[in-house]
Write a structure and sequence with these properties.
- This protein is of the alpha+beta class.
- The strands form three sheets. Strands 3-4-5-6-9-10 form a six-stranded antiparallel β-sheet. A two-stranded antiparallel sheet has the order 1-8.
- A hairpin with a 2-residue loop joins strand 3 and strand 4.
- The longest helix is centred in the last third of the chain and has 68 residues.
- The protein is rod-shaped.
């Protein structure tokens, strides 16, 4: 990016601004410093940063959605049961110990796999009705291994649906980051515009003060000539009126300057008055043309990019709603291996290893609502949301492009206005100087001198106003094109840490 310093209104204005900055009560700051302070104190930007972080955590959560799940359980059951036998009632006891460990995992495309290993041991009392003896059975040891697979065939099938939450979370994160950048760019635009308004008011104060100095000097010189008898009292009236008029204008512009300084200091925290140090370097206006600004606004504008993210989110929501409207048809299958040992754990392990006892299942399950109106309506509503999001994206894009082209035309007009104002100022200065010489020579009247000085002062004010307007137009254009933060980064890197 090429930069140039916008020229000063005039040498004496630049010198007056320097002395004005030191004379005014307030902190003298560069544009880089005020940008840094604004970004550090902006509550809106702080909130946008928090939202971006929150969206980032949502992405992290969605990434971890499809992770293996380990399960484990352990239990001991002791039971005593009364039973009838010959001669009365007796109590039989039993003890069961069960251990289980498993792992389950659901993949993004919908498949679920689970495996579980179980171990148990049991000992039981057995009461024979026709015997007084209580038999002790066991201990027995059992081992089991079960593997199960579930696969959706319609609803819930496919990686696109399984990762819909992740894709949406990423889109939300993108939108939140764009919102953060947009908030930062808006804050920079506001404070840089306010900075240039302060600069203009300072220039206006300097011009009015310089004009007052000139007018008072001319009035003193004219008074001396009146006392000498070469001028009448009424010849001084235009000069006295001019001095009073300038003082009135100076009072007004000084009040406006204080208001601008307070407004500049408000976004950076506290109620301090800030004084603009010097004009900020801005990008050359000639770097923009219609095609360039339209391309930049379409590709880089934060509001347009956010709308694109919202369209993507609506598309993800539509795919989820469309899937929910499908019939649920799932395939399930499991295979189980079991082993049992009587007083010998090794027997259970041997039976399990040789697959002597195997069970299996495969089947389909169907869920079909008798009335699909609600689901179909949800899916249709989601599709309409996509259409609405696209229309909003189109509307925002068209508005941004139109605003960019209008701002570019304002920029071009302001450049021409500045050029003509400088030409007018040169002529007005020459005319004022000529009228001064003629007045001192007794050829021109005081009124002619006053008019010439007023025209010069007005021309100088128009140059300062056009200079500020040109900078503000460039700031607005760069904000629309999404490059203002880049410019601000360059300005803040040049800003001194202390003044």
């Amino acid at each position: 990016m090429h930069h140039h310093h916008l020229p000063a209104v005039a040498l004496f204005v630049a010198l007056s601004l320097s002395s004005l900055a030191h004379a005014e009560s307030g902190r003298v700051v560069t544009v880089g410093e005020v940008i840094t302070m604004t970004l550090e104190h902006s509550p809106d930007l702080a909130a946008a940063v928090v939202e971006a972080r929150r969206a980032g955590l949502e992405v992290t959560s969605e990434r971890s959605r499809y992770t293996p799940l380990f399960t484990a359980s352990a239990g001991w059951l002791h039971r005593e049961t009364p039973s009838l036998r010959t001669g009365g009632v007796d109590v039989a006891g039993s003890d069961d110990v069960a251990l289980a460990a498993g792992i389950a995992h659901t993949f993004a495309w919908g498949t679920s796999i689970a495996a579980e290993l179980t171990m148990n041991g049991a000992g039981r009392d057995f009461i024979q009705p026709d015997s007084a003896a209580v038999l002790r059975l066991g201990p027995t040891y059992g081992l089991g291994l079960r593997v199960q697979v579930d696969q959706p065939l319609l609803r819930g099938l496919g990686r696109e649906l399984g990762e819909a939450g992740l894709r949406r979370a990423r889109s939300v994160k993108t939108a939140a980051e764009l919102a953060r950048q947009q908030t930062a760019s808006e804050a920079v635009q506001t404070v840089m515009t306010a900075y240039w308004e302060v600069w203009y008011e300072q220039a206006a104060v300097a011009i009015q003060r310089q004009a007052l100095i000139v007018a008072e000097r001319q009035l003193r010189d004219a008074t001396i000539r009146r006392d000498a008898g070469t001028l009448a009292d009424y010849d001084l009236l235009p000069l006295k009126t001019e001095v009073a008029t300038i003082r009135e204008a100076l009072s007004e512009v000084e009040g406006r300057l204080r208001q601008r300084q307070i407004a500049l200091g408000a976004p950076v925290g506290g109620h301090q008055r800030l004084v603009a140090a010097e004009p900020a370097p801005m990008a050359a206006a000639s770097r923009w043309d219609d095609a360039t600004i339209v391309e930049a606004a379409t590709a880089n504008n934060y509001a347009v990019a956010r709308q694109a993210a919202l369209v993507f989110q609506a598309g993800v929501d539509a795919s989820v709603a469309g899937d929910a409207a499908l019939t649920q048809l799932d395939l399930s299958a499991w295979l189980a291996f079991e082993g049992l040992g009587d007083r010998d754990p090794g027997g259970a392990l041997s039976m399990l290893a040789t697959a002597e006892a195997v069970s299996g299942y495969i089947g389909l399950s169907l869920e079909l609502p008798l009335d699909t109106t609600a689901r179909d309506s949800d899916a249709a509503r989601a599709r309409l949301a996509v259409d609405a999001a696209r229309k909003r994206q189109q509307a925002v894009t068209e508005a941004v492009v139109a605003s960019a082209l209008q701002t570019l035309e304002t920029l071009r007009t302001t450049e021409r206005r500045l050029t003509f104002a400088r030409e007018t100022t040169a002529i007005a200065r020459e005319s004022a100087e000529g009228q001064r010489v003629r007045f001192e020579g007794g050829i021109a009247t005081a009124t002619e001198l006053v008019v010439a000085e007023q025209l010069r002062r007005q021309a100088e004010l128009r140059v300062a106003r056009a200079q500020a307007d040109l900078a503000i137009a460039v700031i607005s254009l760069e904000h629309t094109a999404g490059t203002l933060l880049e410019t601000a980064a360059g300005l803040t890197s040049q800003a001194p840490s202390e003044r």
